[in-house]
Amino acid sequence: MRFDNSYARLPERFYARQHPTPVAVPGLVAVNAALAAEMGLDPAELSRPEWVEVFAGNRIPKGADPLAQAYAGHQFGGWVPQLGDGRAILLGEILGPDGRRWDIQLKGAGRTPFSRMGDGRAWLGPVLREYLASEAMAALGVPTTRALAAVTTGEPVWREEGRLPGAVLCRVASSHIRVGTFQYFAARGDTEALRLLTDMAIARHHPGAEGALGLLQAAVAAQARLVAQWMALGFIHGVMNTDNAHVGGLTIDYGPCAFMDVFHPDRVFSSIDSYGRYAWSNQPQIAVWNMAQLASCLLPLIDPDETRAVALATEAVHAFAGIYQAEWLARFGAKIGLAAARAEDEDLIGGLLDLMAAEEADFTRAFRGLAEGTARDEFVAGAAFDAWAGGWQARLAQEPGGMEGAEARMAAANPAVIPRNHRVQEAITAAVAGDFAPFHRLHAALADPFGAPPDSPFRTAPLADQVVRRTFCGT
Ligand SMILES: Nc1ncnc2c1ncn2[C@@H]1O[C@H](COP(=O)(O)OP(=O)(O)OP(=O)(O)O)[C@@H](O)[C@H]1O
After folding, report:
1. Which of 310-319, 364-373, 394-403 has the lowest mean pLDDT?
2. Can you tell me which residues bind ATP (predicted)?
3. How far apart are CA 63 and CA 358, in angstroms?
């Protein structure tokens, strides 16, 4: 790895220099060969003992400059002036063969000055969950942080469940700059730091954006498109706090997330979100709220005249709705086979979603079934689906390429395989018992979400008692 650590060159108030805490017995779980190749790294080399030591935090590679990033954030509406990487350590950044910059971060690598009461560690379950979910997202074409490697530590981690095996995830991403990073400096009135952060965020995520207003507009657009993609996959992020809102529009933090099984737009509760604040249907408005927080941080850089700055920032945040709506329509239009969905198609799409919610349809199978002729089976009352399908067929008849074209569009927009919670859970349970084969099989299936053969076991819906009505947490 050839490091070029732009974040470590920022002034020291951006981070705390911190080495990982070595672990007892590093053990390789996985190196992501496809991602390694994308990054210009040799997966065989990364699987050697020296690199397993690096991923465990026992060895610092040449050129790394390890640090924990400072940030703040609104968590469930409450302001926390100081968060920061409490268990993640940024080793540094490398440049890929295509010029892309990658943060190399170890999540679960030990305590940092931002750990508060935490142990700085992660256990194997959430490490595998994040590995699988983030890689599934990438394969689904959704911007996300990635998983380069996972290792076990040979040390126990204590959680509510008791003694659990410790692990470290090597997470890579085009950056880890969050809305909360801006909030950290805005709360301290540190305009100079905001300026440096703005320049870095533009360079790393939105080249071409001009100044703070340009950054805000680009971040809003990226966030709007991201959330529309989540919605179209039945994905619930579960913890849309501002420290998990990425300025480049990546999905970040796979703690209490879930891909829904049965479609429940409003009734999703996680163990840390008992009021359903971050339910599927609330996600767009929460994203707007998060973008408004970014806007408020950037005000002093947008215009010296505060009234003017507020007007410009407000307009930029309000642009979310139009961008989101257009993306939503294109995504859901494609899901029902439309080449170019029109505003009036919203009723047709909304009709299907209402029916899916009322009839307890499995989100993924119902949509995939539209292309494969099996959608009707996902509805308790098939006749209700037939009534909707009449209008749908009539609309498809107006599309170029007829039903064949529509089927191809639907097959490309509706995955057959998503990381269903019961499958992830199975993989974790086996891994804890020392068998990593189910994890690797699931990872392989998730790498090709649209191409799974009809008899793939990963397409099946869970049994009733395994259905995700709740999102999951277990950090
Ligand atoms: N076991 C732990 N020890 C120390 N700090 C922790 C621990 N778990 C979480 N934190 C910190 O608490 C904050 C919120 O935790 P959360 O679970 O949302 O984040 P995370 O999953 O650790 O990190 P990220 O957002 O980078 O994916 C973060 O600042 C995180 O670093």
Report:
1. 394-403
2. 84, 86-87, 107, 119-120, 171, 178, 253
3. 56
**With the CA atoms of 89, 91, 95 and 96 taken in that order, what torsion angle do they form, in degrees rounded to the nearest 10?**
-70
Q: Which residues are catalytic?
A: 243
Q: Degrees (nearest 5) of the Cα angle 288, 101, 125?
A: 70
Neighbours of 184 (CB within 10 A): 27
What residue owns the CA closest to ligand 1's atom 14? 83
User: How many whole angstroms from 341 Cα to the centroid of ligand 1?
Assistant: 40
pTM of the model: 0.96
H/E run at residue 19: none
* 184 CA distance to ligand 1 middle (Å): 16
Q: Please state the separation of Cα 62 from the chain's center in Å.
A: 30
- Per-residue pLDDT tens for 300-316? 999 999 999 999 999 99
Smallest CA separation from ligand 1 atom 24, residue = 253
Q: Kindly state the tokens that stand for 446.
A: 């998730």
236 to 133, 160, 279: CA distances (angstroms): 12, 24, 7
How many angstroms separate the CA atoms of 429 and 436, rounded? 9
Best residue among 15, 87, 278 to mutate for probing ligand 1's pocket (most ligand atoms within 8 Å of CB) is 87
Q: Where are the domains of the chain?
A: 7-173, 177-435+451-475
Token pair, residue 273, equals 């979100």
What would the pLDDT profile of 163-180 be if each residue is shown by its tens digit? 999 999 999 999 999 999
CA distances from 406 to 335, 356, 371, 417 (A): 9, 20, 8, 20
Q: How far, in Å, is the centroid of ligand 1 from the Cα of 286?
A: 20
Quote the tokens at residue 116: 């508060």
Q: At what angle do helices 382-396 and 345-358 cross, to 10 degrees?
A: 160
The answer to whether the beta carbons of residues 348 and 336 sit under 8 Å apart is: yes
